[in-house]
Design a protein that fits this description.
Layout: E1 19-22, H1 25-28, E2 33-37, H2 48-63, E3 68-73, H3 78-90, E4 93-99, H4 110-117, E5 121-125, H5 127-131, H6 136-146, E6 150-152, H7 159-171, E7 178-183, H8 187-195, E8 201-206, H9 213-225, E9 231-235, H10 248-261, H11 270-283, E10 291-295
Parallel strand pairs: 2-10, 3-4, 3-6, 4-5, 7-8, 7-10, 8-9
Antiparallel strand pairs: 1-2
């Protein structure tokens, strides 16, 4: 028996998210118009692409009568934080499977502490088992331990999430020539590119090393839309050493960009995307007259 579908509109999402032009001479001197798509303002607790990816998964959980969500993430996962907040707001129990068994014996960082405060039960897996998290044996063990739950993949990225993120592309139609987004699992880019018009293109800035996101994004598009769709590519040069890796140069850039434009720049994803866009502009990657929309997907923990 299914549960009532969650009334996500009652949570007051700000959709479509705001789109505003910013004046930045690093772009202006190249004849480029820069827009910020403020998905971080969709909801104070479930911001940005996390709202777009979680909403269809929450509805699917209700359709299957499940009142518990289990998902995966690293120690600084914005997705874990958003899932915990969604559980608190909607009265669902949440389980977060965290990469790294050694973290169980360490004090929680601010992100994981926020998850616990929102009612999420944390489980720490050794990295070898975590890499096999999608295998039936691992999932079966988790179901035996925690009972019936709706499984949401790492980063919230599955076919439902990609379809949810296609609305982002629709919101940017006729607004920009190029749309840019930071990528961890590829789900947001998969949907964004599918929702854009044929003449638009999307760039996904990888925040991880490894070069796997092109195949993963295409896999998600095939599952969601039946094949690769939209004009998109992955930019691999601006991960700054990998996920959750920061450098003094990136920190300084984020502080400067935030001061210029009056926003707090999230470090692990958004800063890398903005840095990469600025570098591409200065390299002449965009023709004069191009309008670029940078998707601000989230914010740092309060």
């Amino acid at each position: 028996m299914s549960s009532p579908a969650p009334d996500l509109d009652a949570l007051g999402p700000r959709l479509p998210s705001p789109l505003r032009q910013v004046e930045d001479e690093r772009f202006a001197r190249r004849g480029i118009r820069l827009l910020l798509k403020r998905d971080d303002l969709i909801h104070p607790d479930i911001p940005g692409n996390k709202w777009r990816k979680l909403a269809p998964n929450l509805r699917a959980a209700a359709e299957h009568g499940r009142t518990a969500l289990l998902t995966f993430g690293g120690a600084y996962s914005n997705h874990l934080r958003a899932t915990a907040a969604a559980g608190r707001l909607l009265g669902l129990s949440t389980i977060g499977v965290v990469r790294g068994a050694e973290l169980a014996d360490r004090p929680l960082n601010d992100s994981l502490a926020r998850c616990v405060a929102d009612g999420m039960r944390l489980v720490f897996l050794d990295r070898g088992t975590y890499r096999r998290k999608a295998e039936p044996e691992v999932v079966r063990h988790l179901r035996n331990r925690f009972g019936d739950f709706h499984l949401v993949p790492e980063g919230g990225s599955n076919a439902m999430a990609a379809r949810g993120c296609s609305a982002l592309g629709h919101e940017l139609r006729r607004a920009a020539d190029v749309a840019a987004v930071a990528c961890g699992t590829g789900g947001t880019l998969a949907g964004l590119a599918a929702g854009l018009a044929a003449e638009q293109r999307a760039i996904g800035f990888s925040v991880l090393k490894g070069g796997f996101l092109d195949k993963e994004t295409e896999r998600l598009q095939c599952a969601a839309f039946g094949g690769r769709t939209g004009g998109w590519r992955i930019e691999d040069r601006f991960h700054f050493g990998g996920y959750a890796r920061l450098t003094p140069e990136l920190r300084a850039f984020a502080e400067d960009f935030g001061a210029r434009h009056g926003l707090s720049v999230e470090r692990l994803y958004v800063a890398k995307m903005l840095y990469g866009l600025t570098a591409l502009a200065e390299e002449g990657a965009f023709a004069p007259g191009t309008t670029v929309a940078a998707v601000v997907t989230g914010s740092d923990p309060p």
